[in-house]
Amino acid sequence: MFKDSKAFSTFSADDIPRAKQFYGETLGLDVADEMDGLALHLAGGGEVFVYPKDDHAPASFTVLNFPVEDIDEAVDKLTEAGVEFERYEGMELDEKGINRGEGPTIAWFKDPAGNILSVLELE
């Protein structure tokens, strides 16, 4: 039924101009103002819509994952851009905040609205 549907994901933010700066400038994504929100145009044709919400509560789960060839390079560049990586209790993370043990090699960070994002290394 939805095989040919151009599905997209959404999540909220409390400050769309700040989200636009973060996603467009810090992360380098193609962004566009749409319907009072922000469209994120991802590589491969993926689309995400960030909508404004006055009583926004950050997602408690990862809303967007960015696969990368070299996680160390990605984490270093994001750190240089002022992004701080999350530390989760009970997880063994290296000094950069990268989980290299269980599952994919991954590091989590938050957008200005507190939503959780990640970079993970392609294998």
Mean pLDDT metric: 93
Largest sheet: 4 strands, mixed
> Into which percentage range does the β-strand content fall?
25-35%
Task: Give the CA-based shape.
Answer: globular
Question: What is the overall number of helices?
Answer: 2
Helical coverage, percent range: 10-25%
The residue ranges in which pLDDT falls below 50 over 5 or more consecutive positions are: none
Total strand count, please? 7
The largest beta-sheet arranges its strands as 1-4-3-2
Order of helices and strands: EHEEEEHEE
Structural class: alpha/beta
C-alpha-based Rg, rounded:
15 Å
Gap between N and C termini, in Å? Answer: 32 Å
Record keyword descriptors for this entry:
7 strands; 3-stranded mixed β-sheet; 123 residues; 4-stranded mixed β-sheet; single chain; alpha/beta
